[in-house]
Amino acid sequence: MKEKTKSGKVCIIGLGYVGLPLAKAFSKHLKVIAFDIDEAKINFFASQKPLLKNAYAIFK
Fold it and tell me: Whole-model pTM?
């Protein structure tokens, strides 16, 4: 029987209406890597405290 683990990584492409809440939900239990190309989001996330636990945002 395969043992369930709570370790792993998930990648979210786009931090819009769907991507950001999805990344936040996944980050409660998994490591999250998020990609986005919107420069306004880059500046916003760079200037704020992290919104996501266990998450890394990667931008263009």
Answer: 0.62
